[in-house]
C-alpha cells in the first residue's frame, strides 16, 4: 500500500549517494535543539526576530534533510524506512521542528494585528492533539480496516470511566496509571464490541455498533450516578495529574511552591499531550506497514479473498477493533483530565457526528487526514468567531452575529456534503495535490 | 432488576396501559421506519437524516397549519407538496452525484444533510420550543382501565393505509415495478430502458412525503416541537431492523414489537433502560437474523 502511494525515487541513472550517519541525524538534531534555545531567550529578543529565525531554521532544516537522503541503489533496509524519500524526510524534520517550537511561540505574549485571538489558540492546539489521536484511531478502524463502527464515542466514555475508577477513585489524580489501564480496558472491550463484525458487514455492523454505543452510555450514566452524582467527575483541582517527586530532577521541571509539579495550564499540558499523540500516531502509521496492517487492508477489500490468502479474518478484524479502541480510550482519558470534568451530557450522538465530520473533512482512510480534520474542526469556529467580530464587511452582517453556533453547524454540514461530493479524499487529498503541483512546477523549471 | 420484574403482573391495568402506550409508540416508529425502508429498498442508502426530515415536516406543519392557519386539507396538501419538492432537491442537488460511491461515504453524506437541516431549522425557527399540534381529535376513551387516545388510533390507521398504498404501488404499478427492478440490479434495469435517475428522484420524493406525514403525526404526540425531536430518527432504527430493512410490512410489525418492548422496559425497569433495551433487541436480531423478519437476503460473490 505504501509502495503505491509513495513510490521509491526512480533514479536508476543517478549515482548512489550515502550520507554519513551524522549527516542523516543532523537536521533532526537541529530541529530538536533550536526551539529550546529560542524558547529560553524570552526577554531579550523581539517576537519578530524570533519569527524570522524560526522561518530560516525551518528552511535550513528542510533543505538539509532533503539533500542528505540516501539515493540511487537502495538497500532493502533503506527501502523499508518510514521516511525514505527526500520529501518525506524534509517534512518529518520540519514537523519535528514545528511541534517543538510551537508551544514557545504560543506561550509568548504577542498581539497579532486585528485582535486575532492569540490566547485561545493554545487551548485549541491542545484539543486538536487529543482529537487527532482519537480520530486517527477511528480512521484506522473505519477507513483502513473497513470495519464500519459508530461506537468510538462509547470508547471515549470508557476512557472516562477508567480515568474515574483508576485515576480518581483509586489513586487521586494519577493519570499515568489510568492511561495504560484505559488502553488495556479499551483493547478488551473493543475486541468484545468487534464480535458482531465476525458475522455482520457494512450497514448491519454500523447498526450493531451503534447499539453498543447506547449500552455504553447506560453504563456511563449508571457509573456517574453511583459514585459521583449529578455534577459528574471532577478531574481538576486535587485530581489533576502531577509529576511524581522522584522525577523532579528532570530538565524543565521546577516544582511549584508546595513542592509539587501539577500539570495545569496550556504549556505544561502541551508537553504531555504532544508526545503521547505523536507516539500513538507513529504507532498507527507503523501498524499499517506491518503484516497485520496489510491484512487489515486485505480484509477490507474482500474478506473471502483474504481468507484464501491465509489471513485469519476473525483475528484480523478483532485486532483492528482492539487496537483502535485502545487508542481511543487513551484519548478519552487525556480528554477527561485535560478538559477537567465529565458529566452526563459529555457524550452524545452529536459527538459521534463530530468525529465523522473530522474524518470526512480530513480525508477518509488516511491517518494524516485525521490530523488535518481535527485541526480544521477546532480552528474553524475560532476563526469564524474572530471574522464575525473583527473582519471588515463580515462584522457588519448582523445575521452572522445573531446565529453564531447555528451558522458554524451549517458550515460544517455544507462542508461535509461538498467535500464528499467533489473531493472525497478530503483535506489530505488536497494536500497531496498541492504537494504534487509544487513538485511538478519545480521539476518543470529544472536545474 | 429482579424486583422490577417481580411486579410485572401486579396490576393488569398497568400492563394493559403499557401495552397500549407501546402500540402507540410503535405506530410512530412504524411511520419513521417506513421512511427508512422506502429509501433503503430502492436506493440502498441508509438515510440517517430521516429524523431531520421528520423534524422538517413537523416544523412545516407548524407553519402551514398553525401560523398560516390554512384549511386542514389544503394545509396538508401544501405541506406534502413542499416536502416533495425538498425530496427532489435532495436527490438532484446531492444524492445524484453520490450514486456508485462507497457505502460509508453515502451514510456520512446523509449525516451532513442532517446537520444542514438542523442548523437551518435552528436559524429560521429559533431554539424556543413550540406547543404540539392539536388539529386531530384530542379526546380519549377507556378500555379495561387503560386510556386510549384517538390520535394514536388515527396514526395507526394512517400508517396501515400508507403501507397498503405502497404495497399496491410496488406490486401493481409500472413505476413501482421500475423501482423494484432498479433496487434489484441497477445496471440490468438501465439496460432494460428504465431511467434509474428518475426512479431515485421519485424514491427520495416519496420518502420526504412520508417524512411530512410522519412529522404531522408525530407533532401531535410529542411533548413539544423543538430541536430534540430529530432523535426519533435514531430511536426508530431498532424497529426498522427488527422488521427487516427491505420489508414494508415489516416496518409496521417491527415498530409495534419494539414500541411495546420499549414501553415495558420503561414501565418496569425505568426510563434509562428504554434505548439500551431497544438497541439490545436490535443487536440480538442482527446477530441471529441480520435481514430482520422479512428482509431480502443478499448473496455475495468473490
Q: How much of the polypeptide of chain B forms β-strand, as a percent range?
A: under 5%
- Order the strands across the largest sheet of chain B as they lie in space: 1-2
Whole-number radius of gyration of chain A? 23 Å
The count of β-strands of chain A is 4
Whole-Å distance between the termini of chain A?
32 Å
Low-confidence stretches of chain B: 1-8
Oligomer: heterodimer
Described by the principal axes of the CA atoms, the overall outline of chain A is globular
- CATH domain class name of the largest domain in chain A: Mainly Alpha
Could you give the topology of this structure?
The complex is a heterodimer of chains A (447) and B (302).
Chain A: H1 2-5, H2 21-40, H3 47-67, H4 76-79, H5 86-107, H6 118-144, H7 152-170, H8 175-193, H9 202-227, E1 233-234, E2 242-243, E3 261-262, H10 266-289, H11 291-301, H12 303-308, H13 313-339, E4 341-342, H14 349-362, H15 367-390, H16 398-402, H17 404-422, H18 426-445
Antiparallel strand pairs in A: 1-4, 2-3
Chain B: H1 2-6, H2 12-43, H3 50-67, H4 72-93, H5 103-125, E1 140-143, E2 146-149, H6 150-172, H7 174-184, H8 186-191, H9 196-221, H10 231-235, H11 237-243, H12 248-268, H13 274-288
Helix pairs in contact in B: 2-6, 2-9, 2-12, 3-4, 3-5, 3-9, 4-9, 6-7, 7-9, 11-12, 11-13, 12-13
Amino acid at each position: 500500500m505504501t509502495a503505491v502511494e509513495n513510490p521509491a525515487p526512480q533514479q536508476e541513472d543517478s549515482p548512489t549517494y550515502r550520507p554519513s550517519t551524522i549527516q542523516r541525524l543532523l537536521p533532526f538534531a537541529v530541529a530538536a535543539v533550536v526551539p529550546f534555545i529560542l524558547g529560553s531567550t524570552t526577554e531579550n529578543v523581539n517576537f519578530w526576530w524570533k519569527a524570522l529565525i524560526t522561518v530560516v531554521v525551518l528552511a535550513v532544516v528542510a533543505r538539509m534533510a532533503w539533500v542528505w537522503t540516501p539515493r540511487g541503489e537502495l538497500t532493502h533496509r533503506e527501502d523499508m524506512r518510514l521516511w525514505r524519500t527526500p520529501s518525506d524526510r524534509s517534512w518529518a524534520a520540519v514537523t519535528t521542528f514545528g511541534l517543538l517550537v510551537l508551544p514557545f511561540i504560543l506561550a509568548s505574549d504577542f498581539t497579532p494585528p486585528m485582535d486575532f485571538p492569540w490566547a485561545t489558540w493554545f487551548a485549541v492546539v491542545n484539543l486538536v492533539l487529543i482529537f487527532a489521536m482519537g480520530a486517527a484511531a477511528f480512521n484506522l478502524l473505519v477507513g483502513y480496516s473497513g470495519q464500519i463502527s459508530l461506537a468510538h464515542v462509547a470508547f471515549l466514555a470508557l476512557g472516562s470511566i477508567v480515568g474515574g475508577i483508576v485515576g480518581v477513585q483509586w489513586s487521586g489524580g494519577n493519570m499515568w496509571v489510568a492511561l495504560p489501564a484505559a488502553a488495556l480496558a479499551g483493547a478488551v472491550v473493543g475486541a468484545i464490541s468487534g464480535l458482531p463484525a465476525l458475522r455482520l458487514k457494512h450497514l448491519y455492523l454500523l447498526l450493531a455498533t451503534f447499539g453498543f454505543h447506547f449500552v455504553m452510555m447506560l453504563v456511563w450514566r449508571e457509573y456517574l450516578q453511583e459514585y459521583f452524582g449529578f455534577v459528574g467527575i471532577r478531574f481538576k483541582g486535587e485530581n489533576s495529574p502531577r509529576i511524581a517527586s522522584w522525577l523532579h530532577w528532570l530538565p524543565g521541571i521546577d516544582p511549584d511552591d508546595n513542592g509539587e509539579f501539577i500539570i495545569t495550564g496550556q504549556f505544561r499540558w502541551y508537553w504531555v499531550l504532544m508526545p503521547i499523540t505523536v507516539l500513538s500516531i507513529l504507532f498507527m502509521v507503523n501498524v499499517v506497514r506491518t503484516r497485520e496492517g496489510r491484512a487489515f487492508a486485505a480484509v477490507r477489500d474482500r474478506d473471502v479473498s483474504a481468507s484464501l490468502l491465509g489471513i485469519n479474518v476473525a483475528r484480523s478484524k478483532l485486532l483492528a477493533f482492539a487496537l483502535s479502541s485502545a487508542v481511543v480510550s487513551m484519548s478519552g482519558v487525556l480528554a477527561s483530565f485535560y478538559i477537567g470534568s465529565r458529566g452526563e451530557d459529555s457524550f452524545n450522538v452529536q459527538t459521534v457526528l463530530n468525529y465523522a465530520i473530522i474524518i470526512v473533512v480530513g480525508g477518509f482512510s488516511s491517518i494524516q487526514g485525521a490530523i488535518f480534520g481535527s485541526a480544521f474542526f477546532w480552528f474553524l469556529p475560532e476563526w469564524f468567531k474572530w471574522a464575525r467580530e473583527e473582519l471588515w464587511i463580515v462584522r457588519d452582517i448582523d445575521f452572522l452575529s445573531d446565529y453564531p453556533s447555528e451558522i458554524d453547524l451549517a458550515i460544517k454540514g455544507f462542508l461535509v456534503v461538498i467535500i464528499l461530493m467533489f473531493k472525497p479524499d478530503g483535506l489530505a487529498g488536497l494536500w497531496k495535490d498541492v504537494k504534487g503541483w509544487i513538485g511538478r512546477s519545480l521539476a518543470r523549471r529544472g536545474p | 432488576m429482579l424486583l422490577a420484574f417481580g411486579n410485572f403482573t401486579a396490576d393488569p391495568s398497568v400492563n394493559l396501559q403499557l401495552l397500549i402506550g407501546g402500540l402507540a409508540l410503535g405506530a410512530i416508529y412504524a411511520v419513521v421506519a417506513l421512511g427508512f425502508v422506502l429509501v433503503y429498498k430502492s436506493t440502498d442508502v441508509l438515510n440517517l437524516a430521516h429524523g431531520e426530515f421528520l423534524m422538517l415536516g413537523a416544523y412545516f406543519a407548524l407553519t402551514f397549519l398553525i401560523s398560516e392557519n390554512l384549511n386542514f386539507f389544503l394545509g396538508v396538501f401544501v405541506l406534502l407538496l413542499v416536502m416533495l419538492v425538498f425530496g427532489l432537491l435532495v436527490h438532484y442537488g446531492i444524492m445524484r452525484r453520490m450514486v456508485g460511491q462507497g457505502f460509508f461515504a453515502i451514510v456520512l453524506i446523509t449525516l451532513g444533510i442532517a446537520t444542514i437541516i438542523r442548523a437551518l431549522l435552528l436559524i429560521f425557527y429559533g431554539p424556543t420550543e413550540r406547543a404540539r399540534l392539536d388539529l386531530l381529535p384530542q379526546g380519549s376513551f377507556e378500555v379495561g382501565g387503560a386510556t386510549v387516545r384517538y390520535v394514536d388510533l388515527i396514526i395507526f390507521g394512517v400508517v396501515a393505509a400508507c403501507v397498503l398504498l405502497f404495497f399496491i404501488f410496488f406490486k401493481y404499478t409500472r413505476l413501482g415495478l421500475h423501482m423494484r427492478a432498479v433496487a434489484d440490479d441497477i445496471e440490468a434495469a438501465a439496460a432494460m430502458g428504465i431511467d434509474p435517475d428518475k426512479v431515485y428522484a421519485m424514491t427520495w420524493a416519496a420518502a420526504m412525503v412520508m417524512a411530512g406525514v410522519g412529522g404531522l403525526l408525530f407533532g401531535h404526540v410529542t411533548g413539544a416541537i423543538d430541536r430534540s425531536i430529530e432523535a426519533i430518527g435514531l430511536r426508530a432504527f431498532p424497529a426498522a431492523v427488527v422488521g427487516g430493512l427491505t420489508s414494508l410490512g415489516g416496518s409496521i410489525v417491527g415498530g409495534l414489537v419494539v414500541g411495546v418492548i420499549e414501553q415495558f422496559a420503561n414501565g418496569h425497569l425505568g426510563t434509562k433502560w428504554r434505548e439500551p433495551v431497544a438497541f439490545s433487541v436490535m443487536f440480538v436480531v442482527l446477530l441471529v437474523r441480520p435481514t430482520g423478519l422479512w428482509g431480502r437476503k443478499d448473496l455475495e460473490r468473490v
